[in-house]
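Researcher: Let's run the pair from yesterday's discussion. Sequence first, then tokens, for each.
Model: Starting with the first of the pair.
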Amino acid sequence: MGEGAEVVKTDQMTIAAPAIVHPVDYPVTEKEIAATRAKYGAISFETPEGYEEGRLALAHLRTARTSIEKRRVELKADALAYGRKVDEVAKKLTQLVAEIEDPLKERKAAIDDAKERARRAAEDAARAAAEAKAKADREAEEKRLAEERAKLEAQQAIFAEAQRKADQERRQADERARVERERVEVEQRAAQAKIDAQRAELEAQQRAIREKEEAAAREEHERQEAARWEREAKEQGERDRIAAEGRAAAEAEAAIAEAARLEAMRPDIEKIKAFAGEIRVLAGRAPALGTEDAMKAIEWGVARLSFVADSLEQFTPTSC
């Protein structure tokens, strides 16, 4: 251990660190983590109370883990070598927290997945019931329309028989006297007018049935189209959500990579600033001269050295 060093102690390890840095003290210790394990290790997500307790436990563990990381970054700021020692402690503590947190996450995920499957099953059952009801209603309507058609066909048969009898009576009437034939013809025209009216009414009823069947078919088609559009919209929304999560993860990874790059450049930046100091020292060693032209030359050189020193001192990784 070198001179001017101090000893930093944790629960299970001792680190020799330069006296100029902060002691490696974290907001949580192994003893506290052990107490957390005893408190949260047996949590079950099977009941609403257990689920809520597990959710709060995960939030507590997440806070502990992020506070460890935050303190690790603070401790590493003084020196890279000291930071590596800090990382060792943080890695061990984070691993201890993860040993509690990861099983809880897996148990919570199992319950969440089961709830999602149950929700989807309920939606599928509701959709199947709705489709079954629509099918039953459609079959009932088709049966009713078939009964109406059968009834109209029976009426047509009655009208046909009436027509046949009218024709028979007309043939019989031809054999009667002219007076009697004229009287019968008048009656036949009246009967024919009635039959024509009934036939027109029957045709109108048939047209109404056809129009109703066509309207029912159009409504069914529109319902199926609406259901298809709704299903496709939900699927597109899910795809958009997954894509957004992927972009967010990529951005987070890029930010981590940039932070690592800046940390790797820290020794070079310190060397650049030290070199700027050496340039300033060199500028301060300018000799005293006795001629005006020589003094102007030295002043010009000192000004250029000061400009270079200023530029180097103001250097940042994003300025190049």
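Model: Moving on to the second of the pair.
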Amino acid sequence: MVRAAAQTLGLDETQADQFVRKFGLTETKLEGQVLKALKPVMDQLVAEISKSVTFFQGQYPTVQFEKLILTGGTTAMPELLPYLSTAIGLKVEVANSWIKIGYPANLQEQLMGLSTRFGVAAGLAERDMLS
């Protein structure tokens, strides 16, 4: 996404990264230029997600596919969730990496701010605990 923004907007990658993080898929910021730059990449992402949903539904026709759960730093990009939800036709939400991990209540606010960056680590830790 950063590379697409850099090339389309004529920015270096550091500036493009800042624009993507700050403006994301917002139509009303910078006249929607960042959205226009990211649209081809987002179209590819939506196509791949749609293929995966179709494949899943073909393999498990009796299972209802209710929502898409995202993790990773990109989930903080402005307007990503509503964009994907509209494009895919499913509810989209951000994963809570700490859902099965115990921690002191006074750390909840700090940990929730980091949750999207620890999805893989938390999943591996949980898998290791079950082994």
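Researcher: Give me one sentence on the second I can quote.
Model: The radius of gyration is 17 Å.
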